[in-house]
Automatic annotation (TrEMBL):
InterPro entries: Pantoate_hydroxy_MeTrfase, Pyrv/PenolPyrv_kinase-like_dom, Pyrv_kinase-like_dom_sf. The keyword Cytoplasm applies. Binds 1 Mg(2+) ion per subunit. Belongs to the PanB family. Its cofactor is Mg(2+). The lineage of its organism: Bacteria, Bacillati, Actinomycetota, Actinomycetes, Micrococcales. The gene is panB. The active site is at E211 (proton acceptor). Residues 1-28 are annotated as: Disordered. This is 3-methyl-2-oxobutanoate hydroxymethyltransferase.
Length: 296
């Protein structure tokens, strides 16, 4: 739940009347979800939801549904652009998607991913990329993969006025260095993730996202930091949860497609669209469409 008044100072996260649908009250402007609302959620033991979004309609629908955070992820690479991994996507690829989402979401916090190659060279490069996403992409914050090694980059970005969500655990941009899609933070490696999270929090990250991390390790990280955490394949102890929307809604699929263990599908959009497209094609070929009612 988020505030339904535009006076954010008097309506912290989770307070005020909120319709069950997640929509704001009629006639009242929606309050924008801010990073301090996410922090307040953790303080109160509440949870918030995050979904990826890459276009106008998805952003509008998820915003209306009450999803608190929308991520314009580098996962657009393999969910929009048709690449096998997230590595090829660029800042210039993501900026138009980010603008579309930011212009369409009236209340959700919009976070943009820093893609591979846009921050690794130096803190200055990270600041430059972050500025572009806030200035040109209209994002409210950015997400950056990497552990304690990137603390100086996070610090420089935060000092420049760029809110940073840190991403640890399995980091898809490092899949080749990690040896593929593998769970991180098992056994003795849990201590490393905790130290990464602490270092990133100390550098100014407002949130820590953990991907493909054992639930026990994620719970330890959640307890070790004061900022909220978000999980994807990281158990139920995190403050927030995130999924790629095409996975959540059952759009991605088809023969040979493997769905990750941590994904719960809430719809079968692929099946719905497949059926609609087949019926449309059949109607066109048979002459049933367009009918008189569709003609001028």
């Amino acid at each position: 739940m988020v505030p339904t008044t535009s006076d954010e100072s008097s309506a912290p996260y989770g307070t005020g009347p909120q319709p069950a649908s997640g929509r704001v009250s009629a006639g009242r402007p929606p309050a924008r979800v801010r990073i301090h609302h996410l922090a307040a959620a953790k303080e109160r033991g509440e949870h918030f939801a995050m979904l990826t979004a890459y276009d106008q309609y998805a952003a509008q629908i998820f915003d209306e549904a009450g999803i608190e955070v929308l991520l314009v992820g580098d996962s657009a690479a393999n969910n929009v652009f048709g690449y096998e991994t997230s590595l090829p996507v660029t800042v210039d690829d993501l900026l138009p998607l980010c603008r579309a989402v930011a212009r369409s979401a009236r209340r959700a916090l919009v976070v943009a991913d820093l893609p591979f190659g846009s921050y690794e060279t130096s803190p200055a490069q990270g600041v430059e990329s972050g500025v572009r996403f806030l200035k040109e992409g209209l994002a409210h914050a950015v997400k950056m993969e990497g552990g304690a090694f990137y603390a100086d980059t996070v610090r420089a970005m935060v000092q420049a006025g760029i809110p940073v969500m840190a991403h640890i655990g399995f980091t898809p941009q490092s899949e080749h260095a990690l040896g593929g899609y593998r769970v991180q933070g098992r056994g003795d490696d849990a201590a490393r993730l905790i130290e990464d999270a602490k270092a990133l929090e100390a550098a100014g990250a407002f949130c820590i996202l953990m991907e493909m991390v054992p639930a026990e390790t994620a719970a330890a990280v959640e307890a070790a930091v004061s900022v909220p955490t978000i999980g994807i394949g990281a158990g139920a102890s995190t403050t927030g949860q995130v999924l790629v929307w095409q996975d959540m809604a059952g759009l991605r699929g088809g023969e040979g497609t493997r769905i990750a263990k941590f994904v719960k599908q809430y719809a079968d959009l692929r099946g719905t669209l497949l059926d609609a497209a087949r019926r449309y094609g059949d109607d066109v070929r048979s002459g049933a469409f367009p009918g008189p009612e569709h003609s001028f």
